[in-house]
Design a protein that fits this description.
This protein is of the alpha+beta class. The chain has two domains: about 35 residues; about 130 residues, Immunoglobulins (Immunoglobulin-like), CATH 2.60.40. About 20% of the residues lie in helices and about 40% in strands. It is built from two helices and ten strands. The chain has a five-stranded antiparallel sheet. The chain has a five-stranded mixed sheet with strand order 2-10-9-4-7. Strand 5 and strand 6 form a beta hairpin. The longest helix has 24 residues. About 15% of the residues have low confidence. This is DUF1573 domain-containing protein.
Length: about 170
């Protein structure tokens, strides 16, 4: 019984090692970034880094913002259909070389979130500028926070952008 359990565990560990090795050797350079970001997000739009840490921010300093650059690595145009946020304290703005729209916010809170309908050309870029208001929750909003922005494309795929911070007075 012990040898059977040991054999199963050993087989699983070796299999995971082989899969990790295969995943690391399939692509290198920018192609690797595109593949891994696409798999993680399930979207044709990718970003080099979907997570951002503002560090410690003070409520009295007001709004903070971060711009995420998205790229369409596919050979087809992709349309950003909808952008929503996880909280009303966060607004998002979409911009390409041709057009910019926003602000977009949390769905269901504060009214209707309009469609974006911005096309990102094959190989093209888009920017999502995220603005966080550390004062939005008042004194109850002090401490660690984490928020998300959801970028939905025309095929229903969603790229999630995240940020975190520690809010102080």
């Amino acid at each position: 019984m012990k040898s059977t359990t040991l054999s199963i565990i050993l087989t699983i560990v070796i299999s995971l090692g082989v899969l990790a090795w295969l995943g690391s050797t399939k692509a290198s350079g920018p192609e690797k970034t595109a593949v891994s970001a696409s798999v993680n997000s399930a979207s044709a739009l990718t970003t080099e880094k979907a997570d951002y840490d503002f560090g410690t921010i003070r409520m009295k300093d007001g709004l903070v913002e971060k711009t995420f650059v998205l790229q369409n690595f596919t050979t087809s145009d992709v349309t950003i259909k909808k952008v929503t946020t996880s909280c009303m304290c966060t607004k998002a703005y979409v911009k390409t070389d041709e057009v910019g729209k926003g602000p977009f916010s949390m769905e269901g809170m504060g009214g209707f979130v309009p469609s974006v309908n911005i096309k990102v050309k094959a190989g093209g870029l888009a920017e999502i500028r995220v603005v966080f208001d550390p004062n939005a929750h008042g004194p109850a909003g002090i401490g660690p926070i984490g928020r998300e922005v959801y970028v939905k494309d025309d095929l229903g795929r969603i790229l999630t952008l995240r940020f975190k911070s520690v809010v102080t007075p």
